[in-house]
Design goal:
With 422 residues, the protein is of the alpha+beta class. It has helices at 19-26, 29-34, 43-52, 54-61, 106-121, 136-144, 225-231, 247-256, 259-275, 279-288, 302-332, 348-364, 367-392, 398-404, and strands spanning 4-5, 9-13, 65-70, 76-83, 92-97, 126-131, 148-156, 159-167. Helices cover 43% and strands 12% of the residues.
């Protein structure tokens, strides 16, 4: 077998001369904890493991675990490859790296190369992977590689493993394979659409994903997807519906979420698109049964933004300070509070909260938020303030306190006492 070359790695077949490295790798505490203890303690046992494991798999199946080396330095880093186990129905992906190479993307790069090699050279339509349920890092890697959980099995009593599977197709992301002339070629990505001349219209989605169940083959696109595809240059193609070549990617995404969560995500996406166009187009689009054509609203002017920030800051400070003063004084002595923020206004906390919400409505630059705030202020805040005044009126000194304070806005001038001055 020829080596597999990636941007940073070389994946080559093992040889008996790799026994010293295998002895070290199989006795790493992380390998024993997360995979298994192979019982390899000497160089002779390591050579026997290679002869009965990877080398025998090459001869029997034409594939197996490869040695992973750094492409520049040639240093051994771990192993990765495709394994055919008697206990599994399909070929499975296996990998293990030394701890000093974790967290640098090497495991994913090697695994992607093995997946692409199995699809392109072995014609695999599906690939399995088994992992310990407690190995969170390995599970995250499998999910990043589009593997999906299937079930948990007990191959060894008392040692359950989680089984993952990935459906392979020509639309999957492929790492650079050894038969490419340009080894520096960028791997194919789902984010890049195929070229026009290379598109082929399948008879149905089953030709793209033959293993996909029938109920998952038709994934509806949102209303604006077809227009976006035309912007990307695919409008001249004869496509069944909005771009058949994106359906395999949507099928893969749909398998990650339950049906209700996917529908909820679509609904929230449509609502967000409408809200960006303003409340007016939102109401008009709802009555018309479609989206309004207006685009996103421009950013507010600097003076408006500065005014809103100032009002918001003042309201927040006033509300918090008034509530803090009320709590501190009433916890010591119940009765009227006639000092501090309450010396000129009877409801400074409500005033601060109204300023706070008014700043948000000011930034909206639309009448709808003010309409909602008018209902909140008049239907909730005002009755609460009137009830509070009725309770406070029973305290001594209420008449004088009411005369020198404002209901909601501060009274700056104190009324003169009745009678002539001396």
């Amino acid at each position: 077998m020829d080596p597999i070359l990636t941007e940073r790695l070389i994946l080559r077949p093992f040889a008996l001369g790799d026994a010293p490295f295998i002895l070290r790798l199989l006795n790493e505490p992380s390998f024993i904890e997360n995979i298994t203890d192979k019982g390899v303690r000497t160089l002779e046992q390591a050579a026997e493991y290679l002869a009965q494991g990877p080398l025998a798999s090459y001869a029997t199946h034409g594939h197996g675990l490869w040695m992973v080396q750094h492409r520049t330095t040639g240093n051994p880093m771990g192993m990765c490859g495709l394994i055919k186990r008697d206990t599994l129905e399909e070929v499975d992906l296996g990998y293990a790296l030394c701890p000093e190479f974790w967290g640098l993307g090497y495991a994913r790069e090697a695994a992607e190369a093995c997946v692409a090699w199995g699809r392109d050279h072995l014609g695999l339509r599906g690939l399995l992977a088994i992992v310990s349920p407690g190995n969170a890092a390995s599970i995250r890697l499998l999910e990043a590689l589009a593997f999906r959980y299937i079930e948990t099995r007990d191959f060894t009593p008392g040692d359950p493993v989680a089984v993952y599977r990935r459906i392979l197709s020509q639309h999957d992301r492929a790492a650079p394979s050894p038969d490419r002339a340009d080894l520096g070629q960028e791997p194919a990505s789902p984010r890049h659409l195929p070229e026009r001349g290379r598109l082929r219209r399948p008879a149905s989605l089953a030709a793209v994903h033959p293993d996909q169940p029938a109920e998952g083959r038709h994934i509806p696109l949102c209303a604006g997807a077809h227009g976006r595809l035309r912007e990307l240059g695919t409008g001249g193609l004869d496509l069944p519906g909005p771009a058949w070549h994106l359906r395999p990617l949507l099928v893969d995404q749909a398998r990650r979420l339950p049906g209700r969560a996917l529908e909820r995500a679509r609904h929230l996406g449509r609502r967000a698109a409408r809200l960006r166009r303003g409340a007016g187009p939102l109401l008009a689009g709802t009555r018309a049964g479609g989206d309004a054509p207006a685009g996103p609203r421009p950013e507010p002017a600097a003076c408006l933004l500065g005014t809103a920030v100032a009002i918001h800051t003042l309201g927040l400070a006033l509300m918090l300070s008034a509530d803090a003063q009320k709590h501190a004084l009433l916890s010591q002595r119940p009765g009227l509070i006639t000092t501090g923020l309450y010396a000129r206004v009877r409801h400074p906390n409500y005033l601060g909260e109204m300023l706070l919400y008014g700043a948000y409505a000011l930034l909206a630059r639309h009448w709808a938020p003010w309409l909602v705030l008018a209902w909140v202020w008049g239907g909730l805040f005002l009755p609460n303030m009137l009830v509070m005044e009725a309770r406070l009126s029973r305290h001594p000194g209420w008449s004088g306190f009411k005369a020198r304070t404002g209901f909601l806005l501060p009274r700056l001038r104190t009324p003169r006492a009745a009678g002539n001055p001396a």
